[in-house]
From TrEMBL:
<dbReference type="GO" id="GO:0051287">
    <property type="term" value="F:NAD binding"/>
</dbReference>
<comment type="pathway">
    <text>Amino-acid biosynthesis; L-threonine biosynthesis; L-threonine from L-aspartate: step 2/5.</text>
</comment>
<dbReference type="GO" id="GO:0019877">
    <property type="term" value="P:diaminopimelate biosynthetic process"/>
</dbReference>
<dbReference type="GO" id="GO:0004073">
    <property type="term" value="F:aspartate-semialdehyde dehydrogenase activity"/>
</dbReference>
<feature type="binding site">
    <location>
        <position position="161"/>
    </location>
    <ligand>
        <name>substrate</name>
    </ligand>
</feature>
<feature type="binding site">
    <location>
        <begin position="44"/>
        <end position="45"/>
    </location>
    <ligand>
        <name>NADP(+)</name>
    </ligand>
</feature>
<comment type="similarity">
    <text>Belongs to the aspartate-semialdehyde dehydrogenase family.</text>
</comment>
<feature type="active site" description="Proton acceptor">
    <location>
        <position position="261"/>
    </location>
</feature>
<dbReference type="GO" id="GO:0050661">
    <property type="term" value="F:NADP binding"/>
</dbReference>
<feature type="binding site">
    <location>
        <begin position="164"/>
        <end position="165"/>
    </location>
    <ligand>
        <name>NADP(+)</name>
    </ligand>
</feature>
<dbReference type="GO" id="GO:0071266">
    <property type="term" value="P:'de novo' L-methionine biosynthetic process"/>
</dbReference>
<protein>
    <recommendedName>
        <fullName>Aspartate-semialdehyde dehydrogenase</fullName>
        <ecNumber>1.2.1.11</ecNumber>
    </recommendedName>
</protein>
<dbReference type="Pfam" id="PF01118">
    <property type="entry name" value="Semialdhyde_dh"/>
</dbReference>
<dbReference type="InterPro" id="IPR012080">
    <property type="entry name" value="Asp_semialdehyde_DH"/>
</dbReference>
<comment type="subunit">
    <text>Homodimer.</text>
</comment>
<dbReference type="GO" id="GO:0009097">
    <property type="term" value="P:isoleucine biosynthetic process"/>
</dbReference>
<comment type="function">
    <text>Catalyzes the NADPH-dependent formation of L-aspartate-semialdehyde (L-ASA) by the reductive dephosphorylation of L-aspartyl-4-phosphate.</text>
</comment>
Amino acid sequence: MSRKPTLAVVGATGAVGTVMLDILTTRTDLSDAYGEIRLIASPRSAGKVLSVRGEDVVVQALSPEAFDGVDIAMFDVPDEVSAEWAPIAASRGAVAVDNSGAFRMDPDVPLVVPECNPEQARNRPKGIISNPNCTTLSMMAAMGALHREWGLRELIVASYQAVSGAGVAGPERLYAEIEAVAGDRTMGTVAGDVRKAVPDLADSPFPAPLVLNVVPMAGSLKDGGWTSEELKVRNESRKILGIPDLKVSATCVRVPVVTTHSLAVHATFEREVTVEGARAVLDAAPTVVVLDDPANGVFPTPADVVGTDPTYVGRIRQALDFPNTLDLFVCGDNLRKGAALNTAEIAALVATEFA
């Protein structure tokens, strides 16, 4: 006999958790499958009342008992919290859908993008499913569609990442820097020293000023001069698309945008690909929107995309001097499809098992 599963949102009061509650309220296709929706957060947030699906729900403190009776638990919390609590949720009978980086490269945990590998949602020996990093996710719907048609072999990516990817502190820092230089038209010139004008960088989540600047360092520094964000693009793309030998090189840049990541993608395929064919495939992809008429100023930008669910693609062109290769520009809201939305879509796949 079918029943409606119980869903828990862990980290309901955080930045991504807030977006998740909005999605569960506005996207009935992703929330109608559930009976109870339980909200869980740290003990300091316990007792708060939040609205989801038009109902007031009291936030419960994170504890093993909070998962009793839960069928699916979505985790929108830091890595260390997920690493401890997702296995506990799974041990209490829930399928844990984790938005952190704690399990992404675990061979016993599937890394799922429903547009690319939905079948992997059932392959969960640890009872955990992982959600990819927001930068990788911003291009996966588009790249998955193109890969199915022409066979992806190489990716060279430059990301332009919004400050909200660094958490709540990111936008707060950018706004503080904007206020510090506002009205001073010498800023960014020889006569205006941005580094001296902005608040102390020791208090910033970024290694350099963001205002009137770009910072070619997103994530933590790893071996060989690569950053954690760049390595995530490589490793996660391989796992999601099922191409273990995919050649990937990424440069991740932080830019003064609040929300929505952008990527310039140089993609090489096994078979000959045309711009017209790529547009047709992307137009047919249900979660991709093609905005590609540069002669009339039509292409995606973060200002157009923020707050929306699809992946937007434009500036599609045949790469000069590179056979079987396309260059394109991709934008996706890093808090929605890049985090909360994809997690909700994975949970929705699991919920169909109860129907």
